[in-house]
Amino acid sequence: MDVRILEDAKRLSSKVILEAGKIAKNRFDEFTFLEEKDIFGDVITEVDLLAEELILKEINRVFPEHKIHSEEAGDNGQESEWLWLVDPLDGTNNFAIGLPVFSSSITLMYKKEPVLGVIFEPMINRLFISCIHEGAFCNDKRLQMKKKDTNKRFNLGWIQGHKVQNEEKAVKLRQYIDINCKRMMRLWAPTIQWCMLAKGDLDGIILYNSEGDDLYSGILMVKEAGGIVIDFEGNPFNGMNEEPYLIACHPDNKEYFLSMINKGLSN
């Protein structure tokens, strides 16, 4: 892996994501276009498109040979070991109803592994950056996962894919977790939940079949903050998976969460 590419990518992403976030912040409660994307309730606004156009233009300018996949524009058709994943507005449903909980996410993958994750929350000016083997940071402050005593009740984030809806297994697991934790949070903005876990504001995340352009920046953020990301069988999660079922937490809480998942699915 060429570290010069990674450094250039970090500088570009950090700059352009602030510009994209400015668009979202300036148009919050002022957007003029809203359209449903699918039957699962996902929506799109002109902010998604404007922010995406800005980000893609800069990536293409500096890295024209790289492959890019973006939330709205799709695949650019390039073939490369380097893959950019762009979600210009993670939490569009929140944005659309006037709930100021949304972000922008840019991820750079190398050989299907995340090596750079940049997430920006424009309403509160939080810029998260994680780079492989360099740690995770929020506004230049290093993030470190926090261990919690398993005798206490945990605050957990729940993330599920749009198509999951009310699948029986998902409903059963969701209900079990909700009853057996202090609070189960569903934000409709997954990248923010990953950042909350990396900061120590959440104790764990359960992800049920939710893959997309917003996933891998968060995974890298948590890993670089000292957390682990495993599948429901306890295996380390690496690479990419179109149907991931994941647990993210402090390493010392691994067995606790595996037990919770097993009980929730078999209950």
Count of distinct strands: 15
Query: Which percent range fits the helix content?
Result: 25-40%
Radius of gyration: 18 Å
Number of helices: 7
Explain how this protein is built.
- With 267 residues, the protein is of the alpha+beta class.
- It folds into 2 domains: 3-142, Fructose-1,6-Bisphosphatase, subunit A, domain 1 (Fructose-1,6-Bisphosphatase, Chain A, domain 1), CATH 3.30.540.10; 155-266, D-Maltodextrin-Binding Protein, domain 2, CATH 3.40.190.
- 34% of the residues lie in helices and 27% in strands.
- The chain has helices spanning 3-26, 46-62, 92-96, 168-180, 190-199, 215-224, 254-266, and strands at 34-36, 43-45, 67-70, 74-75, 82-90, 103-110, 113-121, 126-131, 135-138, 141-142, 155-160, 183-185, 204-208, 228-231, 245-249.
- The protein has an 8-stranded mixed beta sheet, sandwiched between helices. A 5-stranded mixed beta sheet has the order 12-11-13-15-14, sandwiched between helices. Strands 1-2 form a two-stranded antiparallel ribbon.
- Helix 4 (168-180) packs across helix 7 (254-266) and helix 5 runs parallel beside helix 6.
- The longest helix has 24 residues, at 3-26.
Helix-strand layout with pairing:
Elements lengths: L2 H24 L7 E3 L6 E3 H17 L4 E4 L3 E2 L6 E9 L1 H5 L6 E8 L2 E9 L4 E6 L3 E4 L2 E2 L12 E6 L7 H13 L2 E3 L4 H10 L4 E5 L6 H10 L3 E4 L13 E5 L4 H13 L1
Parallel strand pairs: 3-5, 11-12, 11-13
Antiparallel strand pairs: 1-2, 3-4, 5-6, 6-7, 7-8, 8-9, 9-10, 13-15, 14-15
Helix pairs in contact: 1-2, 4-7, 5-6
